[in-house]
Each structure stands twice: as C-alpha cells, then as structure tokens.
Specification:
7-stranded mixed beta sheet, globular, 31% helix, disordered C terminus, 21 helices, disordered N terminus, Penicillin amidase (Acylase) alpha subunit, N-terminal domain, alpha+beta
C-alpha cells in the first residue's frame, strides 16, 4: 500500500493543502498519544491464546475463541513489524503525517503560508495528502455512522466485532509493553479502527486513487500504475497423475510496507483453522488454506468507479443541479497534522465537499464528483471473516455472495477435488443508454446507480471439464480451456470487464493446456517459468525492432548492434541470459502502458535509452540479466532469475540505483503450493522472500528464507500442532516470556 499511497501523494502536492484559498494553517504542539499504557497492560489476562514460533519464526496462534486468536495474531505481528502496523492504522485514521512527519514539500508551503522563509529541502512524498484523502472520502464519518447501523442489522455480528476488538487489543498490549516503539499520535485502538482500515484501503485496489489523481492532474497524461500482478492456478484430480488437487497461491506485492505479506498459522477451538498471509492491520487471512479448502487472489479491475460533471449554480457555486432542483454541497473540514519536530506540528484545515454522488473535487473549469462500488458499506470485514470460517464450497460461495468484498479474482480448490475461478466484482447496476467509460452528467438521477448486479451474473468457471483454472491479472474471459471459458456476450459493457492479456496469463494457458498429466513437479515448473510467450507484446516488440531499417539513422551502428543481439533472443529472463536486459529495458516503457489502456511508448526512443544505459553502466549491450536485476536483503546480493510479467516475477519499478542496478522490491513474495491427495488429506509448502521479521535486522528471521526463495525451494507448512512442536523455537502467551528453545530445528526439506 505504501507504493499506492506514494502514487497518490505525488500528483496533488501542496496545492491541495496550502495554496487553496480556504486552507487554514497554524503551528501548535500536539499530545504524543491519547493512549493509556497502564490499562492496556492487563489486556493479556482477558484472552486465552498461545503463540508457538517455529524454526523460521512463523507464528502458530492457538486460541479458545476466534477473538483470542485475533488477539494473538496482532501481538505476534506487532513483535515483527509494529512500525508498519501503526503506519497502516494511522493512515486510515488520517494521521499518517504525524507518523512520517517532516514532509518537506508541505512544510515549505506551510512556511510560506504563515510568512516564514521555507528552510526545508523539497524531497519525498507527502503523507499529508493521504490524510487529506481520508477526509475527502469521509472514512471516519462513514465508519462512525455506518457501523452502529450494520451492527443493528446483523451485518457485523457480535462474534465478528469481538474478533476486531481482540485484534485491536493485541496491538494495544504490545504498545503498552513497548512504549519506546509507539509513534507520535498513537491512540488506544478500537474495533472500528480495524474496520476503517478496510473501508479506506479496499477501493484503492480497484483504482480509486487513479481516478482522484486524474481529476487533480488531468494534463499529466495517462496515469500508469507501477508494475505488479499476481498469479494463481488450480488443477483438478482429472488432470493429475496421482489424483491430487493442486493450488498455487502466488500474490505479487511490495517487499516491505503496509501491503507486504506476513505468514501465519491460525487455529481456534471454535473452528477457525487456516494458514496463509495477512497484511499489517488485518485480523484475517487474505489468502491461504485449511484442511478442507483454500483460495488465491489476483487483482482485477472491473469498472467500479464513476466520475460525474456537476452543473453549478452561476449565482452560487456551492449549489449544484440535480433533477431540476438546486442542491447545496455539503461542506466539512479535513484536518491534517504535520509533525515538524518533537511535540510540534503544523495543522492544516482544508474544505472537503460532498454531493449526492459522493466526494466533490473543484477544478477551474468546473466541479466533479466520484462514486464507487460499496462506498455505502462498512462491512468489508464481514466477507473476509466468512471466508476464513468457510469449510466447503457452499460456505465459500456464500461468503462471496455477501458482496462485502467489492473486487479480486478468486481461484479456489478443495479436498473434494472441486476447483473454480470467480471474477468477484460488485458491479453497479447502470443505465445502458449511457457511456459509462467517460465523464457522466451529474445533474440527473438516471446516472446515479443505487444497487448492484446480482452475484450470479459475475464471470465464473466452476469444475471445468479441462481440469484447470488460472488467472494472472488478465481478462476473466480466459480462465480455463477455450470450451470452459466465460462467454463475452453474457456480460454487458456496463460491467467494464478487462480485455487485457498479460504474458503471465498467456504462459499459463500454454503450459497448462500442453500438459495432460500435471504432477507436483510439473506444477512447480509452471510457476517458475521465466519466458515471454511468442504471442506476448514483448515478442511483438522484439519482432518490430528486428524488422526496422536503421541504416539512415545517425546512430545506425549501435542500433544495428542491438538488432543483432535481439535476433538471437529466446524470450527468457533467466539470470544468465545476455539479451534479456536490452529487451526488458526497451520493452517495459513501450509495453507497460498498453496493459492499462494507454498508447504504447516510443519504441525507438526506448531502445536508444536502453542502449545508452547499458553502455554507460556496463560498457556493453549484453550484460547477463542477473548482473542488471538484483535481489538484496541483509548481506545477500544475488541475481534475480526471473523478471517483470513472467511467472517467476521480480520487479523493480525500473529506476536504477547509483550503480545502474535494478533492485527487486516487488513481485514474488510469500507463496504456497497446496495439495489435497486422493484421500482428501492436505499438505502445503511455502516460502517468504525475506522471513518473518520484516524490519528487525538483528532478528535471525530477517532474511533466513531468502536463500530458499532464490533457489526456488520451499519449506513445509505445519498445520498439525504436534509437527510444529517438533521444530518449535519458542512458546509463550502475549506479554509473557514463555519457553524458549536454545537452537532452532531446521524445517527445510531437500
């Protein structure tokens, strides 16, 4: 999420906060915390939970109730990454700038606003803009108003609310016991703080930040998301030689920050029984598996957001026309606190506007409003809790049928051999007479949707005859063999379903179709594939370069040398490949924009830039790919054996460091190979790109899994407590020292 937020904060800059005529800025001290550590120290007595750390530091949480387990999860995760958990929760509170502090760009503008010379260097992103977004989207107000209603209606059950409060209390206990780690402005957490995090972050996954950014900076050109993606596939017993059902859980995420995966094993006496990954601030496993079923997610981006042009009253710009009647814009103040130093902060207030459609953004040519799917909901946590509790296909489908989770593809598999793909999307029910791809008229209720398409209408593939399903952030219309795929004509244009193809999706289709009997080794080989498809845009780009006549160009010699190198390129990004660096550095600026509906970049210009970079940094056009693309963690500095938009994914944003190296900071992270055998018995293997300790360099788990990750090896997932005890490193209760074993027992199998 940190990268999402960084993209958000760069487009508006200080204009949003200070240069507006309605902004108010002043300097004042702030209280470090509205936090009672004395009261929080006793929280551990309320919860019955044990934490067992295995030899890789992975926490196994065992509790009597689900709330007990959530409490233990929060405490264990705080031990390993308390800073990021606080950052995530302070973000949804609109107080990230108190955590990050010293935002130079905003501080300079604030200094000018109060008549001071700005002494601060301009650099970095502005967390204050994220705080402004929380105010603009009315996150806290929507939670405060919506949660009591949802609880009264039974959409937030007492059991679920206890889980949220248990998670909050686990963080509170850790904060009380480690006051030196508490960030400025931290407050005693409540259940609604956890719900607010889901309310704020969820729409950012399906593109809300891009829509807002475009409104604030419409002349900046196409807004292209940073690279990223996820892989998922499942094969049924009919497609395997041993009658097993296989599932790959392989989300691509940033290596650090609020969207970095943390591996856990959770089990309560009341039936919560899963292993999987969580994000900082999440009490629920977001993808994973248990004894009877599992699922993987990939990001999808159906059209779940609409932009409206408002008709303002020329006599009163605070009024807009709707169905022939002038309505007044609702006005509130968003307050942002920017920590300067110590206990001093700059406070900024800026007006935020709201219409019947949603938040309003003024521009010189007019005012625009935004509306997005599930903006009227505060019960996203309900969907994830139901998924975590599901034990069969019927319960899993019922969890998605709640439509509490607005987007994300799901790849499903279970102990009975059932596999499925669901294009989960809570699509607004729209009037088909309008073009919903552009800006809509905001003066009529005909464009103001109030309901959603039924769950049954979403694309899906359930128990296909082919015996396989897959997704890699591409169109839902290719999820299995051609005969099993959804039919495009069944989904109207108002759904806004993606049509893009990724190389990873093409390779899944090719490799799965070609193998009639997919063994465990075959399954892993598909996941570690490092090639671009001959049908991929990268292959097309290379062909275009080879077809060009450069003889008339001033730099013909270097361009022809590049052609000669690419003529022998086999479309692979293995570490030893000598043409991959030129191909990838040329291709990404050209191909990347097209994946998101933008025109392709300048091929010749990109080729020249790649040539110049390689010649200047490496003295040659053909360095090995592993010389250019690197993986670094602790004392490890290793070549990457994979790359962008291949199934073995490493991405760097392709901004070289001072040495011209491209350091991987996203891509393959925590992933799982899950298998149910012919008798329905489950087993799993996993690996994290780093380890359980995200930020603690002194921890033995800071980079202990990195060698496994780089070698394409995994470790067993220990679902059985007896197995976990055989390799136990430590067992304790939150806030208590517990039992520590002197030396870890290796769990790595050859």
């Amino acid at each position: 999420m940190r990268r999402v937020l960084r993209r958000v904060v760069t487009w508006g800059g200080v204009v949003l906060l200070v240069s507006s005529l309605v902004a108010v800025v002043w300097l004042r001290p702030f209280r470090i915390a509205a936090f009672d550590p004395v009261a929080s120290r006793t929280l551990g007595e309320r919860y019955d939970v044990r934490i067992l750390r295995d030899s890789h530091g992975v926490p196994h949480i065992y509790g009597r109730s689900d709330a007990d387990v959530a409490f233990g999860l929060a405490y264990a995760h705080s031990e390993d990454d308390f800073r990021t958990i606080q950052q995530s929760l302070m973000t949804s509170r609109g107080r990230l700038a108190l955590v990050e502090g010293q935002s130079p760009r905003v501080l300079n503008a604030a200094a000018r606003a109060i008549g001071l010379a700005p002494p601060f260097a301009v650099a970095g992103a502005d967390p204050a803009i994220t705080d402004y977004l929380v105010g603009l989207l009315r996150v806290r107000e929507r939670v405060a108003e919506g949660v009591p209603r949802a609880r009264a209606e039974g959409r937030l059950s007492p059991e679920l609310w206890a889980v949220l409060q248990g998670y909050a209390d686990g963080i509170n206990l850790y904060a009380a016991l480690h006051p030196e780690q508490v960030v400025p402005g931290f407050q005693t957490l409540r259940a609604d703080d956890i719900a607010a995090g889901f309310v704020f972050f969820t729409p950012l996954f399906f593109g809300l930040e891009r829509e807002i950014r475009t409104l604030f900076a419409p002349t900046a050109g196409p807004q292209i998301p940073e690279g990223g993606g996820s892989n998922a596939m499942a094969v049924a017993p009919t497609r395997t030689p041993d009658g097993a059902t296989r599932l790959l859980i392989n989300s691509h995420q940033p290596y650090e920050g609020p969207l970095a995966w943390y591996e856990v094993r959770l089990r309560s006496e009341s039936g919560w029984d899963m292993a999987g990954g969580v994000f900082p601030g999440s009490p629920f496993i977001l993808h994973g598996f248990g004894p009877t079923l599992g699922w993987a997610n990939t990001v999808n981006q159906p059209d779940l957001i609409d932009t409206y042009r408002l008709v303002l009253d020329p006599e009163d710009p605070d009024r807009y026309r709707f169905d022939g009647v002038w309505r007044r814009l609702e006005k509130r103040q968003a307050e942002i606190q920017l920590r300067l130093f110590g206990r001093w902060a700059v406070r900024v207030q800026r007006e935020v506007l709201w219409s019947v459609h949603g938040p309003v953004i003024r521009r010189p040519e007019g005012a625009y409003a935004l509306r997005w799917s599930t903006m009227d909901r505060v019960d996203q946590v309900r969907g994830y809790y139901a998924l975590n509790r599901a034990r069969d296909w019927q319960q899993f489908e019922a969890a998605l049928r709640l439509q509490a989770i607005p987007s994300q593809n799901f790849i499903y598999a279970d102990a009975t051999g059932r596999i499925a793909y669901l294009y989960n999307a809570v699509v607004p029910r729209r009037d088909p007479s309008y073009d919903w791809r552009g800006v809509l008229p905001g003066d009529t209720s005909r464009t103001l949707w109030q309901s959603y398409e039924p769950f049954e209408r979403i694309p899906r593939v359930i128990a296909p005859a082919s015996g396989y399903v897959y997704n890699a952030n591409h169109t839902p219309l290719t999820a299995s063999a051609p005969a099993d795929n959804p039919i495009a004509a069944d989904y109207p244009a108002t759904f806004g379903i993606e049509t893009r193809r990724t190389n990873r999706g093409l390779r899944f289709a090719e490799l799965l179709a070609a193998d009639e009997s997919i063994s465990a080794a075959d399954f892993e080989a598909i996941k570690y594939d490092k090639r671009y498809s001959t049908r991929s845009q990268m292959a097309v780009l290379v062909a275009q370069i080879l077809a060009r006549d450069f003889s008339g160009e001033a730099d013909a010699a270097s361009l022809q040398q590049a052609q000669a190198l690419l003529r022998g390129y086999d479309l692979s990004v293995d570490a030893d490949n000598r043409a991959a660096a030129l191909a990838v550095l040329t291709g990404l600026p050209v191909v990347g924009p097209t994946l998101f509906g933008a025109p392709p970049g300048d091929l010749l210009g990109s080729l020249r830039s790649a040539i110049a970079l390689l010649q200047s940094r490496y003295g040659r056009l053909d360095p090995r790919w592993g010389e250019v693309s690197r993986f670094r963690r602790g004392g490890i500095d290793a070549p990457t054996d994979g790359g962008p938009d291949v199934l073995r994914a490493f991405e760097s944003g392709f901004a070289p460091d001072s040495e011209g190296k491209f350091i991987a900071d996203k891509g393959d992270t925590l992933y799982y190979f899950v298998e149910w055998d012919r008798q329905g018995r489950v087993s799993g293997r996993s690996v994290h790109q780093f380890g359980s300790a995200t930020l603690d360099r002194s921890s033995p788990y800071y980079a202990d899994q990195a060698p496994l990750f780089l070698a394409e090896r995994t470790k067993p997932v220990l679902l059985d407590e007896a197995e976990a005890r055989r390799v136990m490193r430590r067992e304790y209760r939150p806030g208590r020292p517990g039992l520590t074993i002197a030396a870890p027992t290796a769990t790595v199998l050859p």
